[in-house]
Amino acid sequence: GATAATVKSLTTEPAPDTPDVPIKPENAIVATEVASVVVDVNAIDGEGFIVYVTAENKEYGWCEEPTNGLYARFVKNGDTYLLYFKLKTNGASASSEAWGHGIELPADAGEVYLTLIKQEDGTAQILINGVNYFTNHFSASVFDSIKDEYGYAYVSIVTGGGTEATVASISNQRPYIPNSTENWSDVVEETEEYVVLASGAYYKKGLKLEDGHIQVNLSIETLTSGSARMGFAFMSLPNKVYGASYQFEQTITATGFIMWFTRAANNTLVVNMLNVETGRFDFMALGDSSNYSATGMFKIDLYRKGDNNLSLFFNDVEFTKSSINDVHYEDLVDSNGYTYFSYDSYSEGESPINNTVIKVYGVYDSFINIEVPDFSKVAIAGREMRIPKGKVDDSSDYVSAKVLFGETEIAVENWRFTPAEVGNYTIVYMYENGELTSERRIAISVVDGEKSFANENLWNKDNWVVGGGSASSDEDGVTISGKLGYQYYNAPLLMDNGYIGVDFEIKAITNNSEYDQWIMVALVTGGTFTSPAGFAADGLYFWFTNHSGYLMINAAYKTAIGVDYLMQDVTTLPAVGKHTIGVMVNGEGVRLFVDTVEITGQAVNRMYASDIVNSNNCTYLAITEYSADGTPADAQITINSITYVNDRDLNAPVIDRSSVATEATVGDEILVNATAEDEEDGEVLVTISVIDPLGEAISVVNGKFVAEVAGDYVIIFTAVDAAGNTAEDRMQITVSEASENKVSCAGSVGSALMLLVGAALLFATKKNSK
What we know:
Layout: E1 28-30, E2 34-43, E3 49-54, E4 69-77, E5 80-89, E6 92-94, E7 101-103, E8 110-118, E9 124-128, E10 131-132, H1 142-146, E11 152-159, E12 164-171, E13 189-190, E14 195-197, E15 201-202, E16 207-208, E17 213-223, E18 229-235, E19 256-263, E20 268-277, E21 280-283, E22 288-293, E23 296-305, E24 309-314, E25 317-318, H2 329-332, E26 338-346, E27 356-364, E28 370-371, E29 378-380, E30 385-386, E31 391-392, E32 400-405, E33 408-410, E34 416-417, E35 423-433, E36 436-447, H3 455-458, E37 464-474, E38 477-489, E39 493-494, E40 499-509, E41 517-524, E42 539-547, E43 550-558, E44 563-574, E45 577-586, E46 589-594, E47 597-599, H4 602-605, E48 618-627, E49 635-643, E50 654-656, E51 663-665, E52 669-671, E53 675-678, E54 682-684, E55 686-691, E56 697-698, E57 704-706, E58 711-720, E59 726-736, H5 749-769
Parallel strand pairs: 29-36, 51-59
Antiparallel strand pairs: 1-11, 2-8, 2-12, 3-4, 3-11, 4-5, 5-6, 5-7, 8-9, 9-10, 13-14, 14-27, 15-26, 16-26, 17-23, 17-27, 18-19, 18-26, 19-20, 20-21, 20-22, 23-24, 24-25, 28-31, 30-34, 32-33, 32-35, 35-36, 37-38, 38-48, 38-49, 39-48, 40-45, 40-49, 41-42, 41-48, 42-43, 43-44, 45-46, 46-47, ...
């Protein structure tokens, strides 16, 4: 077209000088991604042996430090070994925390694997027998220091007295940890269902926590007791292992949080957690016991809650410690809303395959989210339980549900089921939409309702869910204290007998008229909430303050409508001492007692018994202690016992009005006498009121009244016993117009006689009515 171009010259220039790359010696490794040395140890004693991986092809002498290179010295130390590491770069040492670190190797040593795995930033993972002890602890790149200008690294070994060790193999393969799979940095085994992880490994793909939910499904296959532990981390930076070996790296630049597990003597998991902030660690749940088995299936769910908060679930049970509130969404994600998951294990000197092994079945950040409203996770054996309806995200579509007891499926009808036995059950919510399927499993406990309040259970601090503060137990009961503590008893209290009493002792409550210290005792409808101090669940709340040495009582009643404050009263009771709260069902309402004093008033009359129990007719006991500026000792309470029936008379009198007629005529004097019998008091006075067809009250004299107009009369009988139990009975009497009397004009002796008799009867009736 419009282009003009001409080749002006063609020349041939000699190629620039290139060095001759030597043939790789037998003791060399191509220092690119992996460098592996296998040492065959027949005996070790005295000074042990040293393995050099250097940039120079030479034999090194005892403790001869290379100009550039890495050396590892193994020294026998009783039944274990001490491992010394040093890295030299251009003659300068780059020391590490591995110096003099104790590890465990077999007594006869056998083969020892030293593996270096290059990281993206040029540093290296350094593995001894597959254990990642020394991740990124050198100030310079390991691979840059061990290779020469051709990219080769050379290996030599020197032994001390009494030690027999030789280099068995040198390669660029990882003999101890197989090649990586697509999504993981290192795996031991891969199948269609799972990958097996034994030592440190990170998940290569970022997880979109910005979408609200990520999940990891795994099985703990091996977790030995002792020093072995395994860790899981959600961090803001990718492609790095964080977790159980956190103490070897105290300068983590990423933020996020780490959880790690150890095995208790009773073969349960011990949960540890720490919040990783910029440049420091914040311990959250250090050494917490759990009910989880040390091996078996395990699920971790992480939910975004609001703009910057998170919810963490283990096996569908929420981690409720208040410290999780200090872990924020923004600290776990990068600028694109991704977080990064890694697994790490640690076992003092031993192979992870012998001590810590997991199978990861799936890591998800894209699935259908099933929402289930919060509800009590404890049910009563033999009693129907209503479970909440599950929905897909924010839609109105309900999912299906089933209940499992072991391998047995329990029928669910109209979102209700009846557990027959005590034990652990699982509610499974399921949804399917084309290729996308999802399920959410929620574990619940089924207990014997009659035994749930027994002192041996009540006094066991492990039966209290501690959201803040602390719980301890002794022969008097369970003592709860905290600067801001809140706990609830994780077993339902049946209201079947119509009364629940809570006996407690206030051990300490500082005298402060500004309410800087107080103790709250609540009976609420749900066993899962953040704090009763914030009226988080429907129910009845009592809180106590110290008013110049006397107990000030406040009470409130919370429903979906709002909070109704019942009372605020200074009593003559000592602030520190033993007290009892009693709640008695009274028809549809309740009666409230503090010690021997009944709380009365219009606010109490507006309460309904159904508002303080769940669908199983159960309520839950919750405790809060608050001390604004003081110590936990400023607000302390001991729960002594719970009773279902106290020494009060709970039964109302029985009214008998069987002698009262249901029909009458205008002008009749109607007899409405009734009697009442009480189990404790015997015969009880009955008061009677009458409402006429016009809605007006009619006076009743000596158990009688005169019906002056036709229509329906309402008769109300009321009886109250000495304990205040009230019985009320209502009936209706229908009054008709009187019929007209017709007399013949012919008059006769018989007719006259009838008139005389009628007049006499009328006179007698009027006289009696006076």
